[in-house]
From TrEMBL:
InterPro entries: Amidase (IPR000120), Amidase_dom (IPR023631), AS_sf (IPR036928)
Protein name listed in UniProt: Amidase
Organism domain of life: Bacteria
A GO MF term: glutaminyl-tRNA synthase (glutamine-hydrolyzing) activity
Domain Amidase: 112-528
Length: 549
């Protein structure tokens, strides 16, 4: 290829973008031999690499010496609540309650499915939380489950229970638009592994819940997904529709994904309970990739035990996802918490914390467990974010290079189009160093979890949102109380936003506030038991959003 005409002045200008400085002699030496490096990069860009092609390098959250837990098996509760009379009360019932009613024949899957479909028809225009509804498929699947029930067959705790799946999971013959304009007509031929597993577990697919375009925020090609507690604000993202629909009783449960806050943030905003499992526990085959070394799949529900039942159905290694790790899952709804040690970072409950945060910590101390202060090493945790930006920019490089990113609705400074463009200036050397920093952070969190069984804190606790997503540790986020606030603005995440809304405008609203529990790798059962106990102690999980009848 022809010489690019790169001058020493060009190099000096580029240094400002990378935060480095070379000498005149060093610039002169580089100016004459950068062509080959550039030509190689340009040649590679001519190869169209589909989103489904993974990185050759795989992330494994396990450090040397890690011992996988051996306990397995799920023991759920068997509530004796009689079938409720009102459709709304049935819609908001827990998964154990729904399971008992369906198994006994007191409630059919068809009736339950019709209840949810009616609620979707009535409330989706307000909440904008379903991108696609599949009533014919849902009723057919419900009837099939009722036929099995009539024969005395039951597929498990999710038998006949309708759910919504985030619209980045492939569903055969059903639009899977990733929330983004360039893909709004995308129709896959096969189902994602998670969709297959849930069908095999007897769950009934109601439709595809919305997500912020390309798994960020709550703005998608159909508008903004809204919070049922205050429809004047967005429901946060990127699992926006899953959070909104579950909170509003438009499904029995839903499935979300998290790269950095996309399960926990909409749970914080909508008052739902979400479990982000250990990285590698759940197969991502057939799901849109945002960041291959960070993406995780988990349940979004209205209660802690519900999350355990759903995780059990989708847990498992998969040859079609190179990052999956075979790991047993154990949960016992009757197990106590008295022998556990719970840690907290004191600074997380300092400036910026709320009364709900402090009440949650006080409630944890009333559980009779040991609650202790912990600390983390002083590391530049926020620097890891550049690794996320680089992977995301690579996943959707063709949008940047073809200018299709201009078709996305959200074009703020923190939105994907601008972030992906900036990522082109990230240094590959720095990216390798970020990966090494990631290893130091893995060691830091491993050290902390050698001292405690779990950590409690607000959603934005210190470095934990970033750190635990990069280390792969699991997180359970549950409702802890309520705040009376004006329409909330965007929560800060680097230079971007988790949600939309104009802070401080309009009347105040009573909105939910959550608390997070982080646990050891592949030890979700412990934080689920802690969450169960905390959920009972706080007593705020059952309240419903003030939606129109």
């Amino acid at each position: 290829m022809a010489n690019k005409g790169i001058t020493e002045q060009d190099i000096e200008s580029a240094e400002k973008l990378l935060g480095i400085a070379y000498t005149p002699r060093e610039r002169a030496q580089m100016a004459g031999n950068l062509d080959g490096q550039i030509d190689s990069a340009v040649a590679r860009r001519k190869i169209d690499i589909p989103n489904a092609v993974p990185m050759a390098t795989r992330f494994d959250p396990r450090l040397p010496g890690f011992e996988m837990p051996t306990a397995s098996g799920v023991t759920g509760s068997t509530p004796d609540t009689p079938l409720l009379a009102a459709d709304e009360d049935i819609a908001f019932a827990t998964l154990p309650e729904l399971g008992v009613w369906i198994r006994s024949g007191a409630l059919t899957s068809r009736r339950l499915t019709e209840i949810y479909l009616a609620r979707i028809e009535a409330l989706n225009p307000l909440l904008n939380c379903y991108a696609t509804v599949t009533p014919d498929l849902a009723l057919a699947q419900a009837d099939a489950m009722d036929d099995l029930t009539a024969k005395g067959e039951n597929l498990g705790p999710l038998h006949g229970i309708p759910y919504g799946v985030k619209d980045l999971f492939d569903t055969a013959g059903i639009t899977t638009g990733w929330g983004a304009e360039p893909y709004r007509d995308r129709v896959p031929d096969t189902d994602a592994r998670v969709v297959t597993l849930l069908r095999e577990a007897g769950a009934v697919l109601l439709g595809k819940t919305t997500l912020g375009a390309l798994a960020y925020n709550d703005i998608w090609y159909g508008g903004r997904t809204n919070n049922p507690w205050n429809p004047e604000e967005g429901s946060s993202g990127s699992s926006a529709g899953s959070g909104s629909a579950t909170a509003a009783g438009l499904c029995g449960f839903s499935i979300g994904t998290e790269t950095l806050g996309s399960i926990t943030s909409p749970c914080q905003r909508n008052g739902t309970t979400g479990l982000r499992p250990t990285f590698g526990r759940v197969s991502r085959a057939g799901a849109m990739a945002l960041c291959w070394s960070l993406d995780k799949i988990g349940p979004m529900c209205r209660g802690v035990e519900d999350c355990a039942l759903v995780l059990d159905a989708i847990n498992g290694a998969d040859i079609d996802d190179r990052c999956t790790i075979a790991a047993p899952f154990a949960f016992d709804a009757t197990k106590g918490t008295h022998e556990l040690t719970l840690g907290y970072l004191p600074e997380a409950f300092g400036k910026g914390s709320t009364d709900v945060d402090h009440a949650a910590l006080a409630a944890a101390k009333r559980l009779g467990i040991e609650v202790v202060e912990v600390s983390l090493p002083d590391l530049p945790y926020g620097s890891l974010m550049n690794g996320l930006y680089a992977e995301a920019a690579a996943a959707f490089e063709h949008l940047t290079l073809s200018d299709l990113d201009d078709t996305l609705t959200w074009q703020d400074d923190g939105a994907w189009p601008n972030t992906h463009r900036k990522a082109r200036f990230l240094s590959a050397v720095d990216h390798v160093q970020i990966d090494r920093l990631r290893y130091l952070v893995m060691q830091a969190l491993d050290g902390m979890f050698r001292e405690v069984d779990a950590l409690i804190g607000p959603f934005m606790t210190g470095p934990m949102l970033v750190a635990s997503n990069f280390t792969g540790h699991p997180c359970l986020h549950l409702r802890a109380g309520f705040l009376q606030v004006a329409t909330r603005g965007a929560a800060s995440l680097g230079e971007g936003k988790l949600t939309t809304g104009k802070a401080g405008e309009g009347e105040t609203h009573r909105v939910p506030q959550g608390i997070s529990l982080w646990g050891r790798l592949f030890d979700e059962g412990t934080i689920l038991n802690l969450g169960q106990a905390l959920e009972a102690e706080l007593g705020v999980a059952a309240e419903r959003p003030p939606l129109p009848a």
